[in-house]
Amino acid sequence: MKKKLYLLLFFLFQQQTISAQKLSVEQINQDFDFLQRILEEAHPSLYWYTPKTEMDSAFKATKLLLNRPLNERELYNIFSPLIAKIHCGHTYLNYSQAFEIAQQPIWLPMQLKYINDKLLIVNLSKSCSDSTLTKGTEIIAIDSIPVAKMVEMVRMNLFADGFNQTFKDYFIGLYRFEEALMYHFGKKEPYRFTVKDTFENIRESVVFTKKRASPEPIKPEKKLTKDEEKIAKAKDLGSMRNYEILKKENALLMTCNGFGYEDYKVFNRKVFTKIKQKKIKNLIIDLRNNSGGDVGISDDILKYILKKPIPNFLTCDAPVGKLSFTKDIEPAPKDHLFNPKQLKQLKNGKYRRVVDGISLLTPYKNLHFSGNIYVLTSGLTFSAGAILASLLKAHSNAIFIGQETGGGEAGCSGGLISKVILPQSNMKLKFPHFHLEVNTKATNIGRGVMPNFPINYTPKDIAQNRDLELETVSTLITNHK
Fold first, then answer.
1. Do 343 and 454 belong together in one domain?
2. pLDDT, greater one: 127 or 334
3. Is residue 220 part of a domain?
4. Residue 217, pLDDT score
5. Is residue 214 domain-resident?
6. Which of 105, 160, 175, 412 is deepest in the core (most CB within 10 A)?
7. What pLDDT, on the 0 to 100 scale, is given for residue 20?
């Protein structure tokens, strides 16, 4: 028993030591100089949204802050706003592996969403101390600090394509707000919430995670049979992509929750075969939970819809043909490495990716769909999900319902992502290598694909589990008949 107690105390001491450990002025400046060098060398869109003069000033201003020893969290809070100025959703900083392991965050016993400048409860855990809190309840303040003030601070460290906010809002609700609550504001359980219910009543609520009298015994992991493994894989695949026929609307709802499934050609063909067999006139593509993945999957969907061949991108270009910091990149699969052999130098000095870069999308001869298309989007519609939305807007009759996409309409930086380890703190910088301009005539104003029919959820909508996007599509199809 004493040995176990000693080990626990030693572990907690190590955690506190790692969290509080200071890096010297020399060390943090080495990390900064390395960070600046690799971004200026290899980031494909460093000055796409922030002019070089402004970015140079931001580098200089950040450098001036590095005049005293800092722990990793303090350094992260200095570097993150600088990186956010690039306005690239694929460029962000993570804590070091040792720091992340040392943390023992206590998350709120609830799920949150940040919608229309409101932090709403969308699901309550059974372990929440206040079981009277209901879905749709708004959190106004925590320990007398207004949520609006906390969110303002959180936004400074968040990344997004261009000047988009819906992508940031998604992650504020998912976990970024809770991170700030613990790490920046230093709040711990119990919390004193000021909340407003769906009837506009305001009250106080003491919130903490109820502990079990005795922890549940850890059950040994059950080994699945081959049949059970097959069923589990099919279930996971079904949650990633699926379709449903809506008889009332004479529509097929095609849901793509990310482009990460290998059977996409089989699945897409099955979808459009079903559309032809059932003589379906309306196609609904749900991209609300699609944060991206393989562009080849979205390209394949387009081939059933396009009327003529088009390139998917106008550019897929890197500023350099070879990286000077390859040894500092965390190992990746061979097909995910920056490979100079896959590049061709252009007259403007940039390097175009000729493997998995720009593709000519030639429509399939069979199963072409020429009916009405409705696309559901949200702030999480990002990367390849947003690219599909942008191309559908530019080259089809698609009508968009929901929120502005999290990914930029004009394009993004991506194609290949590297994780670079800073030499002293071991924090990890993720950033892309290629500047991707989508084949669209849309002017680049740093925004995502805007919906034709914007959807704004109220607390009561959340409480009633309404799906306003699908309700709107149903109304549009009914009125179109």
1. yes
2. 127
3. no
4. 67
5. no
6. 412
7. 67
Q: Which residues does residue 435 pair with via DSSP β-bridges, in sequence order?
A: 317, 413
Pick the last residue of a domain from 45, 66, 101. 101
What confidence category does residue 218 fall into, taking pLDDT thresholds of 50, 70 and 90?
low
Question: Same domain, yes or no, for 310 and 425?
Answer: yes
Would residue 69 count as lying in a domain? yes
- Per the listing, tokens 């708004």 go with 138
Which pLDDT tens digit goes with each residue over 266-320?
999 999 999 999 999 999 999 999 999 999 999 999 999 999 999 999 999 999 9
**8 Å CB contact between 375 and 399:** yes
Are 141 and 251 part of one and the same domain? no
CATH number for position 40: 3.30.750
In a shared domain, residues 250 and 196: no
Q: Which of 383, 390, 438 lies closest to 416 in space, CA to CA? A: 383
The answer to whether 437 touches 411, Cβ cutoff 8 Å, is: yes
Q: In terms of domains, do 75 and 114 share one?
A: no
Residue 365's Cβ-count burial label (10 Å; 0-12, 13-18, 19+) is exposed
Q: What is the CATH number of the domain that holds 116?
A: 2.30.42.10
Does residue 43 sit in the same domain as residue 124?
no
The CATH number for 288's domain is 3.90.226.10
Residue ranges making up the domain that contains 427: 231-480
SS3 for 435? Answer: strand
Paired strand residues for 401? 376, 453
How far is it, in rounded angstroms, from Cα 235 to Cα 238? 5
Question: What is the pLDDT of the chain when averaged over all its residues?
Answer: 92
Task: Report the domain count for the chain.
Answer: 3
d(CA 65, CA 230): 55
**Residue recorded with tokens 């105390």:** 9
The residue whose two tokens read 């079904």 is 238
Compute the distance between CA of residue 59 and CA of residue 372 in angstroms, rounded to an integer.
49
110, 125 contact by CB (below 8 A)? yes
Q: What is the pTM of this model?
A: 0.92
Q: 286 vs 182, 373, 386, 407, CA distance in Å?
A: 34, 11, 12, 15
Q: Would you tell me the crossing angle of helices 295-302 and 384-395 to the nearest 10 degrees?
A: 20
Per the domain annotation, does 433 fall within a domain?
A: yes
Question: Residue 2: helix, strand or coil by DSSP?
Answer: helix
Cα–Cα distance measured from residue 124 to residue 130, given in angstroms and rounded to the nearest whole number: 9
Select from 48, 81, 101 the last residue of a domain: 101
pLDDT tier at 233 (50, 70, 90 boundaries)? confident
What is the token pair recorded at 140? 């106004």
**Predicted confidence (pLDDT) at residue 1 exceeds the cutoff of 80:** no
DSSP string, 151-211: HHHHHHT---STT--HHHHHHIIIIIHHHIIIIIS---SSEEEEEE-TT--EEEEEE-BPP
Q: Average pLDDT for residues 412-437, to the nearest whole number?
A: 97
Residues 192 and 132 placed together within one structural domain of the fold: yes
Residue 138 has pLDDT above 90, yes or no: yes
Q: Tens digit of pLDDT for each residue in 158-182?
A: 999 999 999 999 999 999 999 899 8
